[in-house]
Amino acid sequence: MATATRFPVPDTERHIDVVQPSLPRAVTLGVIAFALAAGVGAYLVLDNWFALGAGVFLGYLIPIYVLSRTRESKRRATDRFWAVVMTAAFAVAITPLVSLIVTVVSEGWARFDIEFFTSDMRGVVGEGGGALHAIVGTLMITLLATLISVPVGILCGIYLVEYGKGHLARWVTFLVDVMTGIPSIVAGLFAFALFAFLIGPGYKSGFSGAIALTVLMIPTVVRATEEMLKLVPNELREASYALGVQKWRTITKVVVPTALAGIVTGVVLAVARVIGETAPLLLTAGFTSTVNWNPFEGRMTALPVFSYYSYVTPGFPPEPGFERAWTAALVLIIIVLGLNLIARIVAVRFSPKKA
Amino acid sequence: MAKQIDVDRLSIYYGKFLAVEDVSMTIEPRAVTALIGPSGCGKSTFLRTLNRMHEVIPGAYADGVVEIDGINIYGDGVDPVGVRRNVGMVFQRPNPFPTMSVRDNVIAGQRLNGAKMSKSETEDVVEQSLRGANLWEEVKDRLDNPGSGLSGGQQQRLCIARAIAIQPEVVLMDEPCSALDPISTLAIEDLIEELKSEYTIVIVTHNMQQAARVSDKTGFFNIEGTGKPGKLIEYDETQTMFSNPSNKETEDYISGRFG
Fold this sequence. Notes:
The structure holds two protein chains of two kinds.
Chain A: H1 25-46, H2 49-71, H3 74-108, H4 114-118, H5 132-163, H6 166-180, H7 184-198, H8 206-231, H9 234-242, H10 247-274, H11 279-284, H12 303-312, H13 319-350
Helix pairs in contact in A: 1-2, 2-3, 3-13, 5-8, 5-10, 5-12, 6-8, 7-8, 8-10, 9-10, 10-13, 12-13
Chain B: E1 5-14, E2 17-27, E3 32-36, H1 43-49, E4 60-68, E5 71-72, H2 80-86, E6 87-90, H3 102-106, H4 108-112, H5 119-132, H6 136-139, H7 152-165, E7 170-174, H8 182-195, E8 200-204, H9 208-214, E9 217-223, E10 230-237, H10 238-243, H11 248-254
Helix pairs in contact in B: 5-7, 7-8
C-alpha cells in the first residue's frame, strides 16, 4: 500500500482482465439436452409432472454451475446460477395462470354458442339454456357500481392530494386504507344490512349488489387517483397559478388531464377486480333464472353467481349444468380481458404526448 | 402598461423560519432589474413574493408591503389570482403543459381561465405572442405538435410566450437561462432586451455577466450563514454596481473573492 495521501490513488499493480474464458455454445446446448433427459427420466421413474419440472431445473442448474465455476469465473457462475433460479421462478408463477386459461377455454368452449348469449334459464333443467340474464346482471350491477364509486373515489383522491391537510386528511387516508382490506363478504353484509334497515329484511336487487361492490371499489379508485395525482409535477401547478388561473381550474384543466391515463387505468382495474365477486352478490342481488332489466326491483343474477349455482345445482342430467358453469367463467374472463384492453388503449390515447 | 413596484420592509417566512429579512426597494417600470447573490440567499423567494407565488408552498407567508402602482398586493381583499394575472412568471426549468400542443400552450392563460376566443382571435394572440418570444419562425409549421417536443431553449421561449400572451404588466424570471445552452441563452437575453420596452422585468440570475449584460439595475442579496435570513445588501444602477460598488461584500462577490 502507498503511504497515506489525501485521497485514494490509482492502483497501478492491478491489471484489468478484459477477456474472460467463456463456455462454448456446444457445451451449453449439451447441458440443456442433459437437463431435458434428466427431466424425462425423473418423470418416468416417479410418474408425476412435478418430477419433470424439478428434473429439468436441477439437471440444468447443477452442471452449468459446476462447469461455469471450473471453466469460467466465480462471478459468471453466480450470474448463471441466479439467472436459472429467476427463470424457474417465472415459470412457476406463470404455470397456474396458463393452466387456468387453458382449462377454462377447453371446458367452456362446448357451450360458447349463440344460445348461451341469447337465452336465460327459465324452465331449463337439462340441455340448452343460456346466461343472458347473468350477463345483463353483471354488466348492470358493475355499471351502477362504477357510476357511484368513480365520482366519489376521484373527488376523494383530489381532496386528499390537492386540498386535504391536517387531521381530517389523515383520517380519510386511514379509513381508505382500512376499506382496502375489507373482505368482500363484509361489504356484502353491509349492503344487505343497509337495505334491510332502509327498505325491509329480505330485500334483494341489483342496486343493493352495486352498493356492495361500491364499498369494494371506492378505496381502489381513491388510491389510484391519489398516486397518479401525486406524480403530476408541482411545476405544472405553479405554471398554471403563475398565469393567474384559479386552483379549481388548475386541477380540472391541468392536473387531472395530465394524470388522466393513470386514473382511467386504475378505474378499469378496480372494475376488473369487483366484476368477479360472488359472495357479496349472493347476499345482496340474489339469484334468479330470468332476465331482469330493472336493477331497483327483483333479484338479479351475476355471472360468478350463475357459474357457482350451475356447478352446485346442475340439474338433471348434470353435465349441461357443468358446461354452462365453465362457459360463464370463460365469458367473465373475456369481459375482464376486454376491460384491460380498453384501459391500455385509453392510457395510450390520453397520456401526455411526446413528439 | 408597465408598472413600478415599491417594496417596503418585506420579510418572508417559511413557517417559523425567516428566509428573507427587511427588504425595501423600488423596481423601475420598463426596465430590467437583476437580482444576484449566492445560492440560498433568498433571491428566488423574494421574486416569488412579487406575484404571491410564494404562498403556494404550505406554511409560507410574507410580512410587509409590496405596492404595484400604489396598490398593496398583500393588502386586505386582494385576490392572489388577480395579482398573478398582472405579474407573469417564467421558471428556472421550462414547464410547458405536456397535454397541450404548442398553440394551446401559448393561449393556456386564456383557455384555463375559461375565456371564449374566436378562431381568428386565437391565431392573432398565438402569432403575436410567439413573435414576441422570437419563436414564431421556428414553430409556425408545427403549432399542433406537443409543446413538450420542442428543444429546451424553445420550450423556455414557449413559456415566455405563454406568460406574455395574457399581457401582464410585470414579468418575473427565475434563472430563466440556467438550464439552457449559450445559444438559447443569447436568444433569451436578446428577447429580454426587446421586451423591456413594454414590460417591467425582474430577473434572478447566477450569471453575473448576464446581469451586467441585460439589466439596468441590480440588487445584491447575501446571507451571513446557514440558517440566517437573506438580506438585500446593495441595490443600484447595474453600471455602478459592477464598476464601483459601495459595499465591500458586493465587491467581493462580483470580483469572485466570495467565501
